[in-house]
């Protein structure tokens, strides 16, 4: 295996880890907080009422399975394509509501956690997240098991760091002092 393919395999595994953990957490959250997600899905006003229950369960299961595919390396290419497709669908749903002026809605990304409200920057960020999701599908040959494990671990660590950086600016000094007491 040459250096270029080794590097591409590592980057592919890194992307699979980051996107995979994001989808696994989001999917499990949608299944655990089903009623909360159902309310968010309903508030988007894009689907007929009769379909909401099935779509809410279906999205949770699909996201969890995509996450598992990306993290395990089994069906990683398919998982990447489905993840990118879901990102496009989510961005369209958010974009339609932003165009309607309905920016006070929760993104619904991870029910049970403080979500972001809709904005064009969130729509763009969601679309941009589709790019690393596709990398495992277009990378070619799968990396070795050790490169896959290292890449996925690093991708998961990057996702955890991203989550921490999103939360830290919202903590006030009094919150931090109260936690130390």
UniProtKB/TrEMBL annotation:
Protein name: Methylamine utilization protein MauE
Main location: membrane
Biological function: May be specifically involved in the processing, transport, and/or maturation of the MADH beta-subunit.
Transmembrane segments: 6-28, 49-71, 77-99
Entry annotated with the keyword GTP-binding: no
Signal peptide segment: none
Domain of life: Bacteria
Record pathway: One-carbon metabolism; methylamine degradation
The UniProt record lists the keyword Membrane: yes
InterPro entries assigned to the protein according to its UniProt record, in alphabetical order: Methylamine_util_MauE
Alphabetic keyword roster: Membrane, Transmembrane, Transmembrane helix
Membrane topology, record value: Multi-pass membrane protein
Pfam families: MauE
Places the protein is found: Membrane
Domain Methylamine utilisation protein MauE residue range list: 11-134
């Amino acid at each position: 295996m040459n250096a270029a393919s080794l590097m591409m395999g590592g980057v592919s595994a890194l992307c699979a880890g980051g996107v995979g953990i994001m989808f696994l957490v989001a999917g499990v959250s949608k299944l655990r907080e089903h009623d909360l997600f159902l309310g968010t899905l309903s508030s988007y006003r894009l689907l007929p009422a009769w379909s909401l229950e099935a779509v809410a369960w279906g999205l949770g299961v699909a996201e969890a399975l995509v996450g598992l595919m990306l993290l395990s390396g089994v069906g990683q290419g398919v998982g990447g394509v489905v993840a990118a497709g879901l990102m496009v669908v989510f961005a369209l749903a958010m974009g339609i509501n932003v165009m309607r002026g309905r920016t006070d809605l929760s993104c619904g990304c991870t029910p049970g956690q403080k979500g972001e409200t809709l904005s064009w920057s969130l729509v763009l960020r969601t679309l941009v997240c589709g790019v690393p999701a596709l990398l495992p599908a277009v990378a070619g040959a799968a990396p070795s098991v050790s490169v896959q494990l290292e890449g996925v671990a690093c991708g998961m660590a990057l996702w955890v760091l991203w989550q921490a950086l999103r939360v830290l600016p919202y903590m006030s000094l009094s919150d931090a002092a109260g936690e130390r007491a």
